[in-house]
Design a protein that fits this description.
By secondary structure, the protein is α/β, with parallel strands linked by helices. It is built from 14 helices and 25 strands. A hairpin with a 2-residue loop joins strand 23 and strand 24. Helix 11 packs parallel to helix 12.
């Protein structure tokens, strides 16, 4: 069979049906044309109109559950007239504290206190979650959150040939079998699970998700005889919803790529990747042998070369068997399987890839299910990846969200939750988030979490601000617990 090349030259979010499809297929990965012309410029113009310095942004604490404000709210927010974040769209009441930064001045801005430098400002925002400040774009990092202005992100206006700005989105586990499959067939709509998430997923320059389902035209859906089955099978038409959402590649480094109770064997996996290839959806993290399974998905976005590297730490956990993982589907030198968690291999691969690509991000499938904090082996593994040269680390599998760490200046997101799943038995399993990362050049400088809830066993819907604030509170609670202890 012919595998879709790892290096892609187009972005499915640009594809359209009919005669225009061929022309659109050659568009390089990057901001969609209808966004690129104004990305950041509307925010920049609005801030300039308010007399704010060039090449700056309005920033808050990363824990403030507010992604943006309107241009008409800028002046009152910064001059002390607006005293409560509730008045500019925050879902709950929190006092506004205007914090000055030494050397940055603007007419009408009245700070309550002034920080001597960016490090001091970051420390203040870490303690005062209602703080707001004006910061030079070049100084912004993971310690602050940039406010959109009129829905436009001022960070994007700092895009240049030397420091391109790139948006990468990650979604968690996609299950199109079991109850999701039942509903798709009943509705006769195989794009239904993605309908309320597709517009957000398509806004990123690069979108990656985790695929946990066999694809076949001949295997009878296991849920027809066992509604609680752990064997997930769907039909090729289900891939349409993923492509419609602008997803650029999917990881198959997970415990449902090969492992099953039906005794399907590697042929079911081969059937799956044949359908993914025919649909034009690249995959990574598994292969006909270990060398193939260790290959990343690679692409170039806005002149930044990127490698996404998949690892199965559940059914291919060679180094930590019994620690919520086991060695069952590992690819071998001559046999098919998923890319195993062999730390020496992983760090060697990341170190090599970091010498070949600007950005390397491992996407792990690992961790204990239904808990709020990662196991020690998962933390150590993620740290080792950062030490080897990864720009960030993302994990899925626990079917609930966990928090994050910033290790040596790089973010680690320990579990981003399900994306499309049918686990309705708890709030934790019904909810997850789409990870939104902004990179300047090689570095992740900002992130957001867009919460969603799966409902009716089959479809995710984005959360309104109040619900998203509650999920963010849960995210930060898990972050704080992660600092305190490991499972």
């Amino acid at each position: 069979m012919t595998r879709v090349p790892a290096q892609t030259t187009f972005n499915r979010r640009h594809l359209v049906t009919g005669a225009a499809a061929t022309a659109a297929a050659t568009i390089p990965l990057g901001n969609p044309p209808f966004v690129a012309a104004s990305s950041g410029q509307l925010a920049r113009a609005a801030m300039t109109a308010q007399g704010l310095p060039e090449a700056t942004a309005i920033v808050t604490s990363v824990r403030l559950p507010l992604h943006g404000i309107g241009s008409t709210q800028i002046a009152n927010l910064l001059n002390g007239t607006t005293t409560d974040w509730l008045d500019v769209g925050c879902p709950f009441s929190l006092p506004v504290t205007v914090i000055g930064l030494e050397g940055i001045t603007a007419e009408g801005v009245v700070p309550s206190e002034t920080a001597a430098d960016y490090a001091a400002l970051s420390a203040t925002l870490a303690e005062n979650h209602g703080g707001v400040a004006i910061v030079p774009l070049e100084q912004i990092d993971l310690n602050v959150s940039v406010l959109n202005i009129d829905g436009d992100n001022p960070l994007l206006a700092s895009n240049s040939e030397t420091t391109p700005v790139t948006k990468i989105g990650f979604g968690g586990d996609i299950l199109f079998g079991r109850n999701v499959g039942i509903h798709m067939r009943n509705y006769d709509d195989f794009t239904f699970p993605m309908l309320q998430l597709k517009d957000l997923l398509a806004t990123f320059d690069l979108t990656i998700c985790n695929w946990e389902c066999f694809v076949s035209e001949t295997i009878d859906p296991p849920e027809n005889t066992d509604p609680n089955t752990f064997d997930f099978v769907t039909v090729p038409a289900a891939i349409e919803g993923v492509i419609m959402s602008g997803v650029d590649a999917v990881s198959m480094a997970n415990n449902h790529a090969f492992d099953n109770y039906l005794g399907l064997g590697p042929d079911a996996w081969r059937d799956t990747i044949r359908h993914l290839d025919e649909a034009g959806l690249p995959w990574f993290g598994a292969g006909e042998n270990l060398a193939d399974a260790r290959q990343p998905f690679t692409t170039e976005v806005n002149s930044v070369s990127i490698a996404i590297y998949g690892v199965d730490g559940v059914t291919a956990n060679v180094d930590f068997p019994g620690d919520w993982g086991f060695d069952k589907t590992s690819a071998t030198e001559n046999g098919p399987g998923t890319n195993p968690l062999i730390l020496d291999n992983i760090t060697a691969d990341i170190e090599r890839l970091a010498g070949e690509y600007d950005v390397v991000i491992p996407f792990f499938h690992m961790g204990m299910e239904y808990v709020w904090t990662p196991r020690q082996f998962a933390v150590d593994t993620c740290h080792a990846c950062i030490d080897a040269g990864a720009a960030a680390v993302v994990t899925s599998h626990p079917h609930t969200i966990m928090g994050m760490e910033v290790y040596n200046g790089k973010p680690i997101f320990h579990a981003i939750g399900n994306l499309v799943y049918d686990q309705m038995f708890s709030v934790d399993t019904r909810t997850g988030y789409i990870l939104d990362m902004t990179l300047k050049g090689k570095d992740v400088v900002n992130f957001r979490i867009h919460g969603f809830e799966n409902f009716d066993y089959c479809q995710g819907r984005l959360m309104p601000p109040g619900e998203n604030a509650a999920l963010m509170n849960r995210f930060w609670r898990s972050t704080d617990l992660t600092k305190q202890y490991r499972l």
